[in-house]
Specification:
Elements lengths: L1 H4 L5 H13 L2 H6 L34 H7 L1 E2 L4 E2 L22 H30 L2 H6 L2 H8 L6 H9 L9 H29 L5 H33 L18 H10 L3 H19 L14 H14 L8
Antiparallel strand pairs: 1-2
Length: 328
């Protein structure tokens, strides 16, 4: 209307003129009755009745790119997916119709179908709300990790991550903020318990003031350092003394002097005598050379060599360069 009138009036001025002259003026009083008969009744039941739009309050659309929308099958204007939870829920009411000749049983049956459909809609919306609240869609798209790293107040330990996984079933009963608050309170409880145990330890050692605790901790640290150095020195001496006793079980057997250090470790770990190992090694290398020369050979390994021992020895010979990897 303002464009039709011209540049002399703004849209606000045109609206005020129309309302004052044609609605609240004499013309409006003469033409518009105080009570409007046959007013149209709203049958969409916005108060929460069956099939009411208020049953599922729409959420704002997800902030994702067009490619990501196509990947998810997401329709932002409807906040729906191509495949929803309980996809066939609409079949409960799609064939329903209200007929004047329906008896009471049929009416109640149709109402039961509507009630079942409403429950499925509520469950579908509940799952959407959980996914939106816990940012499951960005997590699926791989964008949630960067945001968590930016907003993280403190570094989460491995134990806390495992605890979060154990408490994951609580997601459907608590909002994201409530769950984070619960987790933070559990962390605070753990820290307080540790602090209480520390203070009780101070009290048992006769410390009653925090100023004395620093001196006590310094002395305790020196004490533990001396203990650690003493244990380290003892273990070094023990290693030197027990270096030769590592192969005590096989060092007196025939063929021990023919083995390298790595072969000694292998035979000791497999509980295999040096003579048997040398026999198996000779057979495997001989078969490998014959195959390389194109001579057909049938491997005849000893009966005491099971699959596990054979695999371990083959891997060892391959890593050591005795045979090629494709042959093993």
């Amino acid at each position: 209307m303002a464009a039709h009138v011209g540049a002399s009036r703004t849209p606000q001025e045109v609206m005020e003129h129309y309302v004052s002259m044609y609605i609240h003026g004499n013309l409006g009083k003469a033409c518009i009755p105080d009570t409007i008969p046959n007013r149209v009744t709203d049958h969409t039941c916005p108060s929460g009745g069956p099939l009411s739009p208020s049953l599922t309050t729409p959420l704002p659309p997800l902030d994702i790119s067009v490619a990501e929308q196509q990947q998810l099958g997401y329709m932002p204007l409807r906040d729906d997916y191509e495949i929803e939870y309980d996809q066939d829920a609409e079949t409960l009411i799609s064939g329903l119709s209200v007929n004047y000749d329906d008896d009471d049983v049929e009416i109640e049956l149709k109402r039961a179908h509507v009630d079942m459909y409403v429950r499925k809609l509520k469950e579908r919306q509940r799952r959407k709300n959980i996914a939106r609240d816990y940012n499951l869609v960005p997590a699926f798209l791989g964008r949630d990790k960067k945001e968590k790293e930016k907003t993280a107040k403190r570094k989460i330990t491995k134990e806390e991550k495992e605890l979060r996984l154990k408490l994951r079933p609580l997601y459907q009963f608590m909002s994201c903020k409530e769950f984070d608050d619960l987790f933070e309170n559990m962390h605070k409880e753990k820290m307080l318990r540790a602090k209480i145990r520390e203070l009780q330890r101070y009290r048992r050692n006769g410390i009653t003031k925090m100023e004395e605790s620093a001196e006590y901790e310094a002395a305790r640290h020196k004490r533990e350092k001396r203990k650690e150095n003493k244990n380290t020195g003892g273990s070094k001496r023990g290693k030197e003394d027990g270096k030769d006793s590592e192969f005590a079980a096989i060092e007196n057997l025939p063929g021990f002097e023919l083995l390298s250090d790595r072969e000694k470790v292998l035979c000791s770990s497999l509980n295999l005598s040096p003579a048997r190992y040398v026999t198996v090694k000779t057979i495997i290398i001989k078969d490998h050379l014959q195959k390389r020369q194109g001579i057909p050979s049938k491997s005849r390994l000893p009966s005491y060599l099971d699959k596990v021992l054979k695999k371990r020895i083959l891997n060892f010979l391959t890593e050591s360069g005795w045979i090629s990897r494709d042959a093993s």
